[in-house]
Each structure stands twice: as structure tokens, then as C-alpha cells.
Specification:
CATH architecture of the largest domain: Orthogonal Bundle
Largest sheet: 4 strands, antiparallel
Radius of gyration: 21 Å
CATH topology of the largest domain: Helicase, Ruva Protein, domain 3
Strand order of the largest sheet: 1-6-7-5
Order of helices and strands: HEEEEEEEEHHHHHEEHEE
Distance between the termini: 33 Å
Helix content: 25-40%
Strand content: 15-25%
Length: 309
């Protein structure tokens, strides 16, 4: 399943090709949308919301359509993608043709064409999106934190390792960031939400948001490899660490460019062979989720993330 930053990076890749462009032809390869034809419509916005992508299209001046604006709403699921100028395959669900490019959506978990109010209703179940611009506004950030805290506190017996993935509580975090945030916070993924203070929960949200911000423009490029290792000690932070400043990150990037070999990208995620990047100890891999159909692999360090006695 994609991380929230994956959708932001995807939107940055698609906008130069799609933004303000007129659709020359559309090919929706799902039974419900087989007769949908958006030729002549204009892409006006490409908007990531948590793990969903909304393409806003505006009707041409002369049209028989009753709608003047529609939303092509998709969820990538585990393996979905939107790619530019790639060849369609048997998994392709949508092809958007422009003058000089085509955008191909394949293996999409969901694909709908909705009126704006229907799209808002479809996304209404989501908790606050950690990468939404409102988090940067002093007047709204406090309200969003309060909303997320209220949401998480309503599931006090849920392990923190599942609460962070529950998109109804707070949206945008995926499995990689769940593992990395808990590792940096030295929190055992199986501890109950009820055992954590408000300060700890807010600290987790800050870490998760800031780690994702490291991996989207302007801190990163849309094609760069995701990494969570650029953190610095900070005794005043809730968990004793903070995200590197742009200047610190630039120096680290320069240092890494002079060193040979593959540089580690994560602290614990998928490091069961290499060990914990912090202490070098073994990494455990467990399944953790709400119900068997929603369980995901979680990687954690039993030394750095030992449960509180």
C-alpha cells in the first residue's frame, strides 16, 4: 500500500504533463466506466489526499454534459500506478491521451469518475491528512492535532502500531513510516494507545509528518529514493530526535556521495538481514493489524523498542 508521500511525489510527476491540458481521448477499462468519454475536457488540478489521487477535469464550453466539473478518483492499492508514456498491459484500467503524452493507470485498487460532492463524500471517512497544507497554518494546525488526538483516544485498546495505519484516525502514514516512526521514538509497536501520553502521540505525528516532508519536494525530488535516516539528536524533542534541517540534509547528501556502496535508507524497515541501524541488533518481523485481512508486516528492534515493564 502506498505511503502518503508516494501520492505527493506522483502528483509532482504528473502535473507537468497533465495540468491545464486538454484530453484528446480517454479509455476507461472497467465495466462501470466503459462508456465514459472525457475527450475535450481539461485537467485543471491533480490533488493527492492521503493515499488517493484526484484528477479534476472541467467540461468544454460546448458540451451536452450536465456536469461542468468531475473528479477522476483513484486509489493505488498495493501495486497500482499512474505512469507517463508507458505501454498498456492486461492490468491497465485507464488511459488518458493528451497531445504529446499519454498517462496510463494500471492495477488500481479503485477508479471512479464522480461529481465533486460525491468525491468529497467518498473521502469523508479519512482522518486529517498529515501532508495537507493546513498543517502549516498556525490557525488550523492546533485544530488538526486536537482532532487526531480525539480520534486516536477513541480506540484506547488498539496497539499504537495499528493506530498509526488506521486511515480513519489519521491519514497518510503507511507501513514504512509506521515502522520508522516507532523505531525513532523507541516505542514498542504492541503497546496500547491508552498507555501513551498526549505529548507522545503528538510527537509521533510530528515525526511521521516531518519524515514524509523529507521525501517530497522541495526537500526531495519526485524520483529520489525514499529515506528516513536524516535525523539529529535533540534533547528538547519528545523522543530526543528531530528531522535534519535542509542545510544538514545537504551536507549529509554530499558526504554520502563521496562514500562507496549502497547507503542505508531506513532504521528498521526491511532490515532483518542487516540489523538495526541504531544499535546493530536483530530486527524482528511480525504481523500486526486489525483483523487478518488488514495485517501488515512490521519491523522493529527488540533492544531499542523493548516494552515498558
Amino acid at each position: 500500500m502506498p505511503e502518503g508521500d508516494s501520492l505527493v511525489r506522483l502528483a509532482h510527476r504528473l502535473r507537468p504533463v497533465m495540468q491545464d491540458q486538454i484530453l484528446q481521448a480517454t479509455d476507461f477499462r472497467t465495466p462501470r466506466l466503459a462508456t465514459t468519454d472525457l475527450a475535450g475536457w481539461q485537467i485543471t488540478q491533480v490533488i493527492p489526499t492521503a493515499k488517493y489521487l484526484s484528477m479534476v477535469v472541467r467540461a468544454p464550453t460546448e458540451t451536452d454534459s450536465a456536469a461542468t466539473e468531475l473528479i477522476v478518483l483513484s486509489h493505488l492499492g498495493m501495486d497500482g500506478s499512474w505512469r507517463i508514456d508507458t505501454r498498456p498491459t492486461h492490468t491497465t484500467r485507464c488511459i488518458l491521451h493528451f497531445d504529446t503524452h499519454r498517462v496510463v493507470g494500471s492495477s488500481l485498487a479503485s477508479l471512479e469518475v464522480l461529481a465533486p460532492e460525491q468525491a468529497r463524500e467518498a473521502l469523508a471517512f479519512l482522518g486529517p491528512d498529515l501532508l495537507a497544507p493546513d498543517w502549516h497554518q498556525p490557525g488550523t494546525a492546533g485544530r488538526l492535532f486536537a482532532e487526531v488526538l480525539t480520534n486516536i483516544r477513541e480506540a484506547p485498546d488498539q496497539p499504537i502500531g495499528t493506530a498509526l495505519l488506521d486511515q480513519r484516525l489519521v491519514s497518510g502514514l503507511g507501513n514504512i513510516y509506521r515502522c520508522e516512526v516507532l523505531a525513532l521514538a523507541r516505542l514498542n509497536p504492541f503497546v496500547r494507545v491508552s498507555t501513551l501520553s498526549d505529548a507522545q502521540l503528538i510527537g509521533l505525528l510530528y515525526l511521521g509528518r516531518d519524515l514524509m516532508l523529507l521525501n517530497i519536494p522541495p526537500r526531495s525530488t519526485p524520483h529520489a529514493r525514499r529515506a528516513t535516516v536524516d535525523v539529529r539528536p535533540d534533547p528538547e524533542a519528545v523522543f530526543g530526535v528531530r528531522i535534519a534541517t535542509p542545510q544538514e540534509q545537504a551536507r549529509s547528501d554530499a558526504d554520502r556521495s563521496h562514500r562507496r556502496g549502497k547507503h542505508p535508507a531506513y532504521w528498521v524497515y526491511n532490515r532483518q538481514r542487516e540489523g538495526c541501524l541504531r544499535c546493530g541488533g536483530p530486527i524482528y518481523r511480525d504481523m500486526l493489524g486489525v483483523g487478518h485481512d488488514r495485517e501488515r508486516r512490521i519491523f522493529w528492534c527488540p533492544a531499542c523498542q523493548a516494552p515498558n515493564e
